[in-house]
UniProtKB/TrEMBL annotation:
Pfam families, sorted: Abhydrolase_1
Taxonomic superkingdom: Bacteria
Leader sequence residues: 1-23
InterPro entries, alphabetized: AB_hydrolase, AB_hydrolase_1, AB_hydrolase_fold, Epox_hydrolase-like
Keywords: Signal
Record-linked SUPFAM superfamilies: alpha/beta-Hydrolases
Species, as recorded: Deinococcus aerolatus
Entry protein name: AB hydrolase-1 domain-containing protein
AB hydrolase-1 domain mapped to chain residues: 52-281
Family annotation (PANTHER family): HYDROLASE, ALPHA/BETA FOLD FAMILY PROTEIN, NON-HEME CHLOROPEROXIDASE-RELATED
Cell wall biogenesis/degradation is among the record's keywords: no
Amino acid sequence: MNQALKQSGTVLTLALLSGAALAGGTSGARQDGMLAVNGAQIHYVSQGSGTPMLLLHGYPLSGELFARNRDALASAGYRVITIDHRGYGQSVAPEGDAGSIQTYAKDALAVMDQLNVPSAIIGGMSMGGPIVFEMYRTAPERFKGMLLIDTIANPANVVEKAVWGGMAQKAVTYGPQSLVGELLKDMLTGQTRLSKPGDAKFLGDIVKQASVAGDVAGARALSERPDSLPMLGTITVPTLILEGVEDTVYPPPFAMKMQQNIAGSKLVLIPGAAHAAIYENADAANRAIVDWGRSQNFR
């Protein structure tokens, strides 16, 4: 790992573990509700009153993935907006359009419109990353900055396509709850699963909230996601990449590759965390985001 961290031209910061939450400020008023968006009902939460920051969850989670980030980021001067993609959490998809990368991106942009947010720092975890890339392809002017969290720019290879196909089939056959065991072994480190069963239960309960149609659509979206590697060089907004050191779904080399191809981007490795690093080690992730934001002087 030490040798990898010294790669030429790569800016890496190893975030330190800390039990203390970020201090200072008030978290601001919280709003939540449902919005009619592109034929779907999309649930959102908005907290704080500063620079808008839209955070998009991964498969098959919900905006509650960011439950440990809202207070700290709102206290640091951000208006934190999270949504549940159609078919996940409290959101409802219309029949015949359960979702795709393109549809999720259109939904997120429409939510920004309805909440009167012309531009924002836009971030995505795992499946949220390809959605963020799609949003940038279609509406780069909506971005103040970009957060890429335990995600990937590469298209799915043949092995990954088979994995997502299996996930979809299992959801159809046995229901969304059957995916909990399949996913939590990658979402959280073994140490966290053993020592903090409440964390595993929290994420597991989110997985159970998804609809079967949502699980199938998300799996297909990941399997068929566009190749975003060619567009990395076109990203001109400030970009922060967060990566769990122990992520086995999209391991650190993928994050390093993105950092090398996005000019001026910063990569922060989150220790003691796997694929759901933004939740598992939220203190380190929050600190990294706030420090990066201060260095960019966002308005």
